Amino acid sequence: MTDLTVFFFRHGIAVEREVFEGSDSDRPLTAKGEKKTYQIARRLLDLGIEIELILSSPLVRARQTAEILLEVGVAPDLMISDLLAPSGSLQEWLHWLSHWRQEHEGALMAVGHEPNLSHWTELLICGKALGHIQLKKAGIIGLKVPATDPLGNSQLFWLTPPKFLLNGSGLT
Amino acid sequence: MTDLTVFFFRHGIAVEREVFEGSDSDRPLTAKGEKKTYQIARRLLDLGIEIELILSSPLVRARQTAEILLEVGVAPDLMISDLLAPSGSLQEWLHWLSHWRQEHEGALMAVGHEPNLSHWTELLICGKALGHIQLKKAGIIGLKVPATDPLGNSQLFWLTPPKFLLNGSGLT
């Protein structure tokens, strides 16, 4: 079985915790966060990146991000999963992944939160989470994940903040 | 002292070792390698990335890459150093860096070779080199390197193959 291509996508800019009156899980993207997420989604499409499934955290800011990716056409399907909530565990997600990949060969995009996504990346590529990978909001990580022993044996091929992905003139 | 921004830049596509009649250190960029390196250099400029000094391996394919970056205006100065040759050691380069940063605050771009640049990155961010970071030709790594104990304590904020940096339409 070949390595699976997995993208981690951190949700876009959301209303700050301090000023939002509802629960943390309901915080939505700001207008700027929505706009930038649309820009990034269109850029992924332009780059020819093909995704089979978007898996998203159920929190509103992540789900809105995932829905924008779906709407723009980055992937044909979206699934919401607690595995990507801030309380999710890498081991449980890898367990889900080991089943999913048995019937799918395309790439997966996981939309979630920090510090989980950068810690998971460190665990996948070097076996320990040191907090030494910086993943900005609407930033992306690209990994090649082997079928057996993915922890400490995966490959990192991409890590980008949104500002280096958009055209210079497209930055706001 | 704040973290120093360091970019690693792998030389562009060069004439293959098997078909080049001179010594390995003299292998030049191909026409395609030159073209793509120019595209990436202009993109870095467009993104507003400011570099104080380009430090380059003395091998022809790296020096040509660095000269393109200089010509396009990514940085005002270029220095050639054996520290970035394939035989260079991370410890010796870090020793040079510790002196350089005492008199400079800007970012440094180091143009060199694989597997050195990706191994050095792994040593800087997770303390060991496992070969789990993929750096393509004309690809870029961005690091924040602390003044003390940089090994295993640096931050990775960027890793990109050239194809994800150029416009979709600019890819050849």
UniProtKB/TrEMBL annotation, chains A, B:
It holds the Pfam family His_Phos_1. It comes from the Bacteria. GO terms for molecular function: protein histidine phosphatase activity. InterPro entries: His_Pase_superF_clade-1 (IPR013078), His_PPase_superfam (IPR029033), SixA (IPR004449). SMART domains: PGAM (SM00855). One of its GO terms (cellular component) is cytoplasm. This is Phosphohistidine phosphatase SixA. The gene is sixA.
